Amino acid sequence: xxxxxxxxxxxxxxxxxxxxxxxxxxxxxxxxxxxxxxxxxxxxxxxxxxxxxxxxxxxxxxxxxxxxxxxxxxxxxxxxxxxxxxxxxxxxxxxxxxxxxxxxxxxxxxxxxxxxxxxxxxxxxxxxxxxxxxxxxxxxxxxxxxxxxxxxxxxxxxxxxxxxxxxxxxxxxxxxxxxxxxxxxxxxxxxxxxxxxxxxxxxxxxxxxxxxxxxxxxxxxxxxxxxxxxxxxxxxxxxxxxxxxxxxxxxxxxxxxxxxxxxxxxxxxxxxxxxxxxxxxxxxxxxxxxxxxxxxxxxxxxxxxxxxxxxxxxxxxxxxxxxxxxxxxxxxxxxxxxxxxxxxxxxxxxxxxxxxxxxxxxxxxxxxxxxxxxxxxxxxxxxxxxxxxxxxxxxxxxxxxxxxxxxxxxxxxxxxxxxxxxxxxxxxxxxxxxxxxxxxxxxxxxxxxxxxxxxxxxxxxxxxxxxxxxxxxxxxxxxxxxxxxxxxxxxxxxxxxxxxxxxxxxxxxxxxxxxxxxxxxxxxxxxxxxxxxxxxxxxxxxxxxxxxxxxxxxxxxxxxxxxxxxxxxxxxxxxxxxxxxxxxxxxxxxxxxxxxxxxxxxxxxxxxxxxxxxxxxxxxxxxxxxxxxxxxxxxxxxxxxxxxxxxxxxxxxxxxxxxxxxxxxxxxxxxxxxxxxxxxxxxxxxxxxxxxxxxxxxxxxxxxxxxxxxxxxxxxxxxxxxxxxxxxxxxxxxxxxxxxxxxxxxxxxxxxxxxxxxxxxxxxxxxxxxxxxxxxxxxxxxxxxxxxxxxxxxxxxxxxxxxxxxxxxxxxxxxxxxxxxxxxxxxxxxxxxxxxxxxxxxxxxxxxxxxx
Length: 852
Description:
It is an enzyme of class 5 (isomerase). The chain is an alpha+beta fold. Helix content is 34%, strand content 24%. 32% of the residues are buried.
């Protein structure tokens, strides 16, 4: 057995490190954190802010194996990542595995290369408790915010919602941008573009220096231009340079991978993690743009050999962020001699990192910029043409030209022909086009990361999970927005004639950008109204600074928590007691048929329209909003259209047919079967023929694809992806199977595995009482009806093993349930008969005054 045990957090990292260490070392993986706060309950003593960590059920076997390996080793090397999360993993390992200071060493490295690993072994240290405390502070504070704010949302908005410190601020950014877009009033102006010809018939594209606000002013200018002799009034040529960007930080890598490769933030980090663990790049969670001297020398050598000495310009970059203390180097290749790697997807990201790092060490590009002024003294404004020539490409040789996300496509500068001052030009065409101002763009993933970083909210490790979380919670999404159409005027001067035409242009459409959902807007408005400080950008950034101070040893984490909680908790109590319920209610107007108020609001199953008031004698009627509609913008006319649903069609094959809209969108109902109408199709336009087409498509999709032990097997796609159905079992089909061409052996394998899992699901079951003890993902639990309950610890404060639970009596299990829910077995009272409500004389209810 090896004398030295090295523990890292991932198996890929373990495999790479094992290659560099001799037979005296054994490398094992902890598969991330071996313990954490409990999945259920807060798990924090609010008097002392001490966390109650526990080893999750799926890690118990691993911890047992690690303890056995520790007993056989003379020295344990904790080699988790060098950031706060990695330090916390090392601390949890040391504590749970009962490692003594004399038998453990902490090593860190920012790249997984032989030199870096051996150097780390030569320079061990102990666990940095300040970094651990900074991680604990973040974990505990975020858990408290989530656990205390979420129940307030359940009570005041809708059950099942949740809140988070950084996530809620990210949602706020997206909601505020959407409101800004809605309130934006576009202004029209006329922009003039000219194409001029020199004596050799070479074209020069130019723009008028001033826009015209009025159509008649633009037309008047074109009239003057008819008879104007255009001349070159001035030619100015000046040298310029372009400088390479700094090497990648986590944030800039996420932004560039999005714009150049189309990768989302989560995918970028997943691929970067693999590149790091396989030894190709340095640590991928960093705020720093610094490069080591070794890296600078390696880049210089590669640049000189590949491009020549003129292209080399070694330099180091300084980090603007004061908090960039965790990883002391930018993301870069570990070996510049490795120009590409085998895995195609990994290679795309590696190439981006490789070229960006190389470019950062290359000479500036030299350009020559030319500006030509074209006009005549008789004209009030002159045209200007801009172009540039690259004299020396420098870093562009490796990295190319980067176009920013918000660059105007019309501003592409081109190469201009040679002209001289006083030279007469003829116009080929002069166009005056009506253009409208545009609101700020919605956030892309890269744009949101950039904004969060600018505001100092979150850190490199938080961007990807934050963006994933707000989508998972359905507070924001990336649904496609259909464009609107408007008329624009275009006037063209060609051969002394002005042609005027009215064209249609599309505007306001968007795709792959963040848009808040109705529930996201309602939750955001409630939180910003009632928890201003928690959602304040400055406050969130100050909390991050406090974490940095804890990491540097300048602040004690429990003191910071005490100070935070002393203000936060009273606010929670006040809001819970005094705040009004929030459902985003918006009064749209009055239904002309009934004279009743029409509201758009959040209901139990999401956004809906309500005609009538809840306190009216006659109950209100409801309709769900369709995809693409939202509470804030739906009109009265659009809302009333929804009440035409559901509508009946003729029977088909002896069963009734109707069209409606429900929780999961528009549908065709055939008998008792609900069939979703394809995305983007208006349910009100579904005819008898189209309904039958949709039904036949469903019949074809539901036709048995195979049999299992004589019973049919069908397949389909649901909310959680592709599945096969056998009897009453729905079985998810993993990606490793070809869902379109499932073989009989695939189907047998999937059903066998599901039946085996179902057989092992119950430890004990009392069907009559609807009570069972079941094996779950996080360990055994009690199920009563649809409710789930924890299994308490035994008298000796240890947890029950599965074998012991087989002998527990039904009475004991009932006691566990009633300890957690006193009314679990109480008889449900029959609802009292409703008293008839007094008739109201007024039909229209005044809308509530808007909160400022």
